[in-house]
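re: the backbone from monday

yeah here it is again, tokenized this time
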């Protein structure tokens, strides 16, 4: 477990560096296509550094706001608050902030930059649908994300991938408006083709990096969460109930999808391609692993 925590801290830095490079690449692509000077590239680099800082310190707050999460105190919902508090004590963690999302889908997520600055959010739907030991299993899973420093990687990915998509959208709009291409390099079809290739590849590479740090985190959190409750069957039962839930979340979006306990887009028809690009491992595989931990129960 300590090795996993140390690995996740290293991955956080790796993720920041790689996605920052991708942001600069997008800026360079825009420069090639529209014939701008190197000020665009420098601007993209500065923008990436600023977003890294904002993502590190405020990424968790942004993720909570985007998903409509509202902070609660103990008196607002003693049942959920006390369960989180008990798990924090058991795990030896500081008490995270607790948030509720007014949504009937069954989901939850944890966010923040470290255990001292963390939050756990659950939907009203999951609180109502799950039994005590099932909800405890889900919350233990999220507390494991906090303890393992998964939250730092996930939160940084939200901020930096968001910037990449904003820059690409900005350059596409410039193309439709006919802005740029005011010098020879901007008119050179070779540079334009290179720039277009970079604009197409950058979000794909960013997505693949996101997937690489996301799927394995879920298996790890399932295992360490089960060790925390000493009852893997509770988490397995929760996943089975969620597997029958097809309702997507009201605020579901690609930028924060990898934060959630289960895919926020529901359980529609799953193609091979959607499986490949999914931020979560198949629920059936997660259940099977947990059943093995629980002796097949």
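seq for it, each position gets an aa:
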């Amino acid at each position: 477990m300590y090795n996993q925590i140390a690995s996740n801290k290293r991955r956080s830095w790796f993720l920041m560096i790689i996605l920052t490079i991708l942001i600069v690449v997008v800026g360079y692509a825009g420069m090639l296509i529209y014939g701008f000077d190197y000020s665009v590239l420098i601007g993209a680099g500065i923008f990436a550094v600023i977003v890294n800082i904002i993502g590190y310190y405020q990424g968790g707050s942004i993720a909570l706001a985007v998903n409509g999460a509202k902070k609660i105190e103990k008196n607002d919902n003693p049942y959920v608050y006390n369960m989180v508090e008990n798990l924090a004590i058991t795990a030896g963690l500081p008490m995270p902030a607790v948030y509720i999302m007014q949504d009937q889908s069954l989901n939850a997520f944890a966010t923040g930059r470290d255990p001292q600055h963390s939050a756990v959010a659950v939907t009203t739907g999951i609180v109502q649908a799950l039994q005590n030991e099932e909800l405890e299993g889900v919350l233990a899973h999220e507390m494991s994300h906090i303890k393992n420093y998964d939250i730092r990687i996930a939160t940084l990915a939200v901020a930096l991938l968001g910037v990449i998509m904003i820059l690409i959208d900005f350059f596409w709009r410039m193309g439709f408006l006919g802005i740029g291409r005011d010098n020879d390099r901007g008119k050179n079809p070779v540079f334009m083709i290179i720039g277009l290739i970079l604009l197409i590849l950058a979000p794909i590479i960013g997505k693949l990096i996101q997937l690489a740090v996301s799927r394995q985190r879920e298996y790890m959190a399932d295992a360490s969460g089960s060790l925390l409750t000493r009852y893997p069957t509770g988490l397995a039962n929760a996943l089975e109930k969620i597997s029958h839930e097809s309702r997507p979340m009201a605020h579901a979006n690609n930028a924060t999808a990898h934060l959630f306990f289960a895919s926020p887009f529901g359980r529609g028809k799953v193609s091979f391609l959607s499986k490949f690009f999914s931020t979560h491992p198949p629920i059936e595989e997660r259940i099977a692993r947990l059943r093995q931990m629980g002796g097949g129960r």
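The longest helix spans residues 189-229. DSSP finds eleven helices and four strands in the chain.
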